[in-house]
């Protein structure tokens, strides 16, 4: 043995021996040998619960570093789904002396007694308790201990009574500068107590009818002591769920604006779903006030509130950063005029622009649109991109863009070529037809000419083993659309992280915030240009290395789904994937490609699938089990089937999964049995586990959706555009 060691040391200059010695030296270097600065950068990526409960126990050095103020000053615990009440209490105990900003948004599983441990964090300045269990008495006791608090977010649940707040709590509320309220019952909440507010964000989610079938009314006290005052207000935002109660309550909150408009107001964002928002008489005075102050930064409004003249006055002389005119086709002309013709002081400051439209017209199969007001103009968009070159968020959804055979577009650049000049864009929502390089005139006539339609109507049904009809040479074939326009777009937008491609007329089966659209939209066919978008277009998305969220919906041109596989291979940061109504709706032809894609999505955390005939069998869930980091899953299939045993095996293989919502076919007994088994077996190890398995055709489906935690529904269960609304300014942004 000694001779062997001597021989090895003597031959240290040999290349193989030298490499072996270097490997031994590298293996002897541990993580404790790194500098504190490098270790802090590494620890910054570790969740706070793991940091304090696990990493801090490794050694003395890591224990000291885990208590560094750079790691514990601003803490977010909103997605610590595996942490129990006991774990949260230990974490809050260690955070007590250092944390200044804490978010528990969406921690619906925590008990009310755990909320009381927040009183230890006496240095906290910003606190987000949206979605947590918080009564008026607990809120009062909590505010009495947090004397440094200046930003608060919480839910106003049924039974909340501001009269139960102590004088110390009211005194603290009077000094708050930022407030975010989610209203689950008609109430002013604590807004009347907050006389120094600079930022106010409201989210209304009150049903018109209770579970017992009793109507909800807004009988609020309108005495001077309970009316909100906004003397110091700078930012106001409100996001409404459908319902007359929510709109009525919003007008009560805005009643003060008809008397006095805050002089410092620079952000006004109101999102009301549905085709007929209630009229607000004070909209015109507000527009005049915004135009006179010349400090407007963000604007979003329902289409029935302002006319083009009021909008022109509101934008005149301002330099807005965020503009949203969704469902406002009558105002788009004035928007373009203000941005392109000097109606605003500096259009280059615009960061986000929302020009999406929920169409209310029928879509004939021949042309895809009825009326020219919904179609984007290539020349106008090209000028807009040149003026607003710093745009980061763009939403052009539910519009149309046809590059060829549209009057006035000959020789003009493709819309994708114009958008490719937005080098700073991070999120983009486009209609599917905007990716098409064009359909020849033969393409349109092939579907609409009387002769071809007559021939198709007189064709005999095909027999087994015999082709009864062969197309003649005179009947043109559909050309294969190229991806040159999309390639230009992708090459010019290297920072793109969120992309949504949705076919015109697509409506989800479970739209929570837009249920009224199902009554006012009756699509008779898909836009012909949208039909040209297929697997090759999806495959072209593989050149986006930063892509994190991808949504594909209402694309009949995707048949086999082969384009999803290269995206999964070359987009390693993909964390959220949403697929809905791809290809033929009568059969699901991309199952094999979908399973191959899921096997490659190792970083996927959110998955949403909506397809009428989805077969969630053992093979499907086995492929889905490869997504080991999956946290949220939603499957919607009206005529689909699922395997209960495979579902249970999948949940066991994915320890991070805490949201499992399945709305498919099957009996109510089978769904409830599987739901109970999953909850009983895994809720102990996963305190935040939310399992909803329910027949899609059942009459009580609406009640099940309403009783599911709101934050989960907003994140994954319901199909809703990530960039459909103008990004609200933090920290007032509704969930």
TrEMBL record:
One of its GO terms (biological process) is SCF-dependent proteasomal ubiquitin-dependent protein catabolic process. InterPro entries: F-box-like_dom_sf (IPR036047), F-box_dom (IPR001810), FBXL18_LRR (IPR045627), LRR_dom_sf (IPR032675). Residues 28-75 form the F-box domain. It holds the Pfam family F-box. PROSITE patterns: FBOX. This is F-box domain-containing protein. The lineage of its organism: Eukaryota, Metazoa, Chordata, Craniata, Vertebrata.
């Amino acid at each position: 043995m000694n001779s062997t060691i001597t021989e090895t040391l003597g031959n240290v200059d040999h290349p193989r021996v030298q490499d072996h010695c270097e490997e031994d030296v590298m293996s002897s270097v541990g993580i404790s040998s790194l500098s504190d600065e490098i270790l802090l950068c590494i620890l910054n990526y570790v969740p706070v619960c793991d940091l304090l409960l696990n990493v801090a126990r490794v050694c003395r050095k890591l224990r000291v570093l885990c208590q560094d103020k750079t790691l514990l000053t601003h803490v977010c615990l909103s997605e610590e789904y595996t942490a129990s009440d006991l774990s949260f209490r230990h974490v809050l105990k260690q955070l007590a002396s250092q944390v200044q900003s804490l978010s528990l948004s969406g921690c619906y599983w925590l008990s009310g007694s755990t909320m009381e441990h927040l009183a230890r964090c006496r240095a906290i300045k910003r606190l987000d308790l949206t979605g947590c269990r918080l009564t008026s008495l607990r809120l009062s006791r909590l505010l009495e201990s947090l004397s440094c608090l200046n930003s608060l977010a919480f839910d106003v649940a049924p039974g909340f009574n501001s009269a139960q707040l102590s004088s110390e709590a009211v005194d603290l509320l009077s000094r708050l500068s930022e407030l975010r309220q989610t209203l689950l019952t008609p109430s002013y909440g604590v807004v009347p107590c907050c006389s120094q507010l600079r930022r106010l964000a409201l989210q209304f989610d009150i049903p018109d009818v209770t579970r017992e079938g009793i109507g909800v009314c807004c009988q609020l006290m309108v005495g001077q002591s309970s009316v909100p005052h906004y003397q110091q207000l700078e930012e106001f935002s409100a996001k409404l769920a459908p319902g007359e109660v929510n709109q009525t309550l919003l007008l009560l909150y805005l009643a003060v604006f008809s008397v006095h408009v805050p002089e410092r107001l620079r952000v006004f964002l109101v999102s009301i779903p549905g085709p007929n928002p209630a009229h607000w008489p004070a909209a015109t005075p507000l527009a005049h006030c915004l135009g006179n102050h010349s400090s407007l930064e963000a604007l979003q409004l329902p289409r029935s509130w302002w006319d083009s003249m009021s909008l022109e006055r509101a934008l005149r002389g301002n330099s807005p950063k965020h503009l949203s005119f969704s469902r406002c086709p009558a105002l788009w002309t004035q928007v373009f005029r203000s941005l392109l013709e000097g109606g605003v002081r500096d259009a280059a400051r615009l960061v986000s622009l929302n020009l999406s439209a929920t169409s209310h017209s029928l879509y004939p199969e021949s042309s895809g649109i009825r009326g020219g007001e919904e179609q984007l103009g290539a020349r106008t968009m090209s000028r807009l991109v040149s003026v607003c070159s710093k745009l980061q968020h763009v939403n052009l959804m539910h519009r149309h863009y046809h590059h060829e055979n549209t009057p006035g577009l000959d020789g003009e650049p493709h819309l994708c070529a114009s958008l490719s000049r937005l080098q700073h864009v991070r999120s983009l929502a486009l209609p599917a037809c905007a990716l098409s390089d064009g359909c020849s005139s033969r393409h349109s006539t092939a579907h609409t000419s009387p002769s071809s339609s007559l021939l198709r109507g007189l064709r005999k049904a095909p027999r087994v083993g015999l082709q009864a009809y062969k197309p003649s040479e005179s009947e043109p074939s559909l050309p294969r659309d190229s991806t040159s326009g999309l390639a230009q777009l992708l090459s010019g937008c290297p920072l793109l992280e969120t992309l949504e491609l949705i076919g015109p007329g697509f409506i989800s089966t479970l739209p929570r915030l837009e249920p009224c659209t199902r009554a006012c939209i009756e699509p008779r066919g898909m836009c012909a240009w949208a039909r040209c978008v297929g697997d090759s277009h999806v495959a072209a998305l593989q050149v986006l290395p930063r892509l994190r969220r991808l949504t594909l919906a209402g694309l009949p041109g995707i048949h086999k789904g082969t384009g999803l596989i290269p995206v999964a291979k070359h987009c390693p940061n993909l964390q959220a994937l949403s697929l809905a109504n791809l290809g033929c709706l009568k059969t699901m032809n991309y199952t094999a490609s979908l399973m191959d894609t899921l096997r490659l999505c190792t970083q996927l955390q959110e998955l949403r699938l909506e397809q009428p005939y989805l077969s969630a069998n053992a093979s499907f869930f086995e492929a889905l089990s490869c997504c080991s980091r999956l946290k949220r899953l939603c499957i919607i299939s009206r005529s689909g089937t699922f395997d209960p045993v495979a579902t249970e095996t999948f949940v066991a293989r994915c320890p991070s999964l805490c949201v499992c919502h399945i709305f498919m076919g099957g009996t109510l007994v089978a769904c409830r049995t599987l739901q109970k088994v999953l909850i009983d077996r895994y809720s102990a190890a996963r305190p935040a586990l939310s399992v909803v398995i329910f027949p899609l055709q059942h009459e009580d489906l609406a009640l099940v959706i309403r009783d599911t935690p709101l934050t989960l529904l907003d994140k994954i269960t319901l199909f809703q555009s990530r960039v459909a609304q103008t990004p609200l300014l933090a920290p007032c942004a509704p969930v």
